[in-house]
């Protein structure tokens, strides 16, 4: 029996789930018609488990031995595996093999987001053991090379048949060595269907989101930047006037994050040289509209993106002080 993976789970999650699933952890009791209360509940639970995420499944395992055996022995619950923050921090090859083996060769979707301790050899071994995988996400997994991605896609492509769909969606933003040639080879092997393409719908900049999810109709998350020619995430603009010109050959407001600066809040393209752009304490770019609406530091009156504002020191009246001002105010005292 596979051991429970040691992963971080919020303290409230276990309590909430434990309360909701209380009937599942009691001993078997006969009800009026002579049926078993526990068995009936477990039968219903089979329909719920496939919709739970990794953290919820691992939390449920800790509630009782009966639930642990039920979850680990149900391959349908492990056909979709998504590992992202905060579980990805200490996620290793050992955990990957243990969790994917629970699918018993029926794994269909594997998405690892910024799992820095994962090696390409183990990911390839997982694909070999799971021919049904048709969605693969390795965004930010820097231990996987571009050459390994080519091998993985070719492996699934060569298996394509009426019984095996082959690889239809791929998420590889943040991997090193993805050249234009490799990108074109990947796109050619995957052969997007009518419902999937390399860039069928606009993609907008969203801080913290490394790649579009699988429910978006994109075969590959990256594409060729029309400005620099690099294979990266390419963003459209949220500015209405730019959206109207999206299909115009002279359209210049579409490109990767290296070519076009975008507002951290709304994703609108901005000119960083314009004087009307307000200064931010976090050094992130904000358009004029978002700068005016963003809360300001009570000391320097500089705005910040919502992410860095949330990390700043808050006061009872709702105001805050940015890290730079906090450092300047406490510096002399610490020196004494």
UniProtKB/TrEMBL annotation:
Taxonomy, superkingdom: Eukaryota
Span of domain F-box: 34-81
SUPFAM superfamilies (UniProt xref): F-box domain
Region of interest (Disordered), ranges: 1-20
Name this protein carries in UniProt: F-box domain-containing protein
Organism of provenance: Physcomitrium patens
């Amino acid at each position: 029996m596979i051991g429970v993976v040691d992963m971080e789970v919020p303290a409230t999650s276990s309590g909430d789930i434990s309360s909701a699933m209380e009937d599942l952890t009691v001993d078997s009791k006969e009800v009026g018609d002579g049926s078993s209360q526990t068995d009936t509940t477990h039968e219903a639970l089979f329909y719920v488990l496939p919709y739970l995420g990794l953290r919820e499944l691992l939390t449920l395992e800790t509630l009782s031995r009966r639930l642990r055996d039920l979850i680990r022995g149900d391959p349908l619950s492990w056909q979709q595996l998504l590992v992202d923050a905060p579980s990805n921090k200490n996620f290793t090859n050992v955990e990957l093999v243990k969790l994917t083996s629970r699918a018993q060769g029926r794994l269909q979707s594997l998405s690892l987001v910024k799992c820095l301790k994962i090696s390409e050899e183990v990911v390839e071994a997982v694909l070999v053991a799971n021919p049904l995988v048709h969605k693969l996400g390795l965004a930010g997994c820097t231990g996987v090379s571009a050459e390994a991605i080519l091998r993985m896609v070719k492996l699934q492509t060569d298996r394509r048949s009426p019984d095996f769909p082959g690889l239809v969606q791929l998420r590889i933003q943040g991997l090193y060595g993805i050249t234009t040639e490799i990108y074109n080879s990947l796109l050619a092997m995957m052969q997007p269907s009518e419902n999937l393409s390399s860039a069928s719908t606009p993609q907008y900049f969203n801080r913290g989101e490394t790649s579009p999810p699988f429910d978006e109709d994109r075969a590959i998350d990256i594409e060729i930047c029309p400005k620099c020619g690099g294979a990266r995430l390419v963003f459209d603009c949220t500015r209405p006037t730019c959206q109207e010109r999206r299909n115009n050959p002279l359209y210049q407001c579409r490109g990767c994050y290296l070519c076009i600066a975008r507002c951290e809040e709304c994703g609108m393209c901005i000119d960083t040289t314009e004087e009307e752009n307000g200064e931010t304490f976090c050094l992130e770019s904000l358009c004029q509209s978002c700068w005016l609406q963003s809360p300001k530091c009570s000391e320097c009156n500089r705005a910040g993106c919502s992410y860095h504002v949330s990390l700043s020191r808050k006061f009872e009246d709702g105001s805050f002080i940015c890290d730079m001002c906090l450092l300047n105010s406490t510096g002399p005292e610490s020196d004494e």
